[in-house]
Design brief:
Helix content: 40-55%
Strand content: 5-15%
Largest sheet: 6 strands, parallel
Distance between the termini: 43 Å
Radius of gyration: 21 Å
Number of strands: 12
Length: 368
């Protein structure tokens, strides 16, 4: 979702910014992977490392092992990484050892929770990166506190919103997504509309004593309006392993398999509310003006709370109930669109990066 608008902006820039697209294969579901490239109109990767699953250490090490020969073979002027996944850090570490400049898109976001693997990836990547592009101004404060020089940082906006705005016209209707899953759309035909649920973070789904109360309160919410629950494989496996399927049986909770980008975009755009522990959905619901209750105790995207439609409720059933009451009662957050979340973050990156690379090239050509 982040790379697609960047590649289009690079191709449309004058002069064009030549690219080599490397797919690490960290997200390894073949069907979802292929569908994502089609949905986002992404070109076929020039290189696919096909890393697949593994522990954090194994996955990071394997990306490094397979990415290093790519850097050696192509000798890039820089390597651009996005977000905070293991691949982001792994490729950054390879470049740091090779003396290749690193550009980080979505820099400076902090949850201040070092139990999150993504937080470690964010912290280390930003320390190493040579050019850092931010989605919100609070990220600059975080980076300054960590000693990152101001001249390395540029505020450009949010490329996730570039993707959302450019793809909204292609989004699948909720009825179509339900029909494709073999479900009658009438099950979510309610005067109050429907809600969307996603849960995948280990802190929420890896322990029965946390997951069971969450499923119980979701069932209560579903008594008020139907919920569409897009089940992450990890979450489904744990629900079955803990014997919790009975908590969902007979409820107005519609279970769907993992959804493609266009399906999920359509579901979000039509929702009355969203309950989720996803980082990306906090941003997308803010851009869509849809109230979001985030089932986490912290967020690395504070702007979605301060300016957007996001409310942090943790995994506290009472806080979830209260949040739903406010939304259905008409007193939930309406929010506003944050600064530079306008669909043009990627062109701003392309313009700045082109100038930065040209300046570096000219500096290298200058005789001593």
């Amino acid at each position: 979702m982040k790379m697609a608008p960047i590649l289009r902006a690079f191709g449309g820039h004058r002069p064009a910014v030549p690219t080599l697209l490397v797919h690490t294969g960290q997200h390894y579901d073949n069907d979802m992977n292929d569908r994502l490239f089609v949905d986002l109109r992404l070109p076929h990767p020039d290189v696919n490392l096909e890393v697949g699953s593994g522990t954090h250490a194994v996955q990071t090490a394997e990306v490094m092992r397979r990415f290093e020969p790519v850097v050696d073979a192509h000798r890039p002027s820089c390597v651009l990484v996005v977000g905070d996944v293991n691949s982001t850090l792994a490729c950054t570490l390879v470049c740091a050892k090779k003396g290749v400049p690193v550009v980080h898109v979505e820099a400076g976001l902090r949850s201040y929770d070092r139990a999150m693997p993504e937080e470690i990836n964010r912290l280390l990547t930003d320390q190493i990166a040579d050019r850092l592009y931010t989605t919100e101004r609070s990220a600059h404060t975080n980076l300054a506190r960590e000693g990152v020089a101001e001249e390395r940082v540029r505020f450009v906006g949010n490329v996730m919103i570039d993707s959302l705005l450019s793809n909204r016209e292609f989004a699948h209707s909720p009825a179509k997504s339900l029909q494709m899953a073999g479900i009658d759309p009438a099950v979510v035909d309610d005067p109050l509309g429907y809600g969307v649920v996603t849960l995948h973070r280990p802190s929420n789904v890896d322990r029965a004593q946390t997951l069971a109360p969450l499923l119980t309160v979701l069932r209560e919410v579903a008594d008020r309006l139907p919920l569409i629950f897009a089940l992450h494989p990890r979450t489904r496996a744990n629900i079955e392993r803990f014997g919790l399927l009975e908590l969902l049986a007979g409820s107005r909770i519609v279970l769907l398999p993992p959804q493609g980008y266009l399906e999920m975009l359509g579901l979000l755009a039509g929702a009355r509310l969203v309950l989720s522990d996803s980082g990306g959905l906090q941003e997308e619901t803010t851009a869509l003006g849809v109230p979001c209750l985030t089932i986490r105790d912290n967020t690395e995207r504070p702007i979605t709370v301060e300016q957007g439609t996001n409310t942090m409720v943790g995994c506290d059933p009472q806080a979830i109930r209260k949040g739903v009451d406010e939304i259905l009662g008409g007193t939930g957050k309406s929010g506003r669109i944050p600064e530079l979340w306008d669909g043009y973050a990627a062109p701003r990156i392309a313009e700045d990066l082109c100038q930065w690379l040209l300046a570096r090239h000219a500096q290298c050509q200058t005789p001593d």
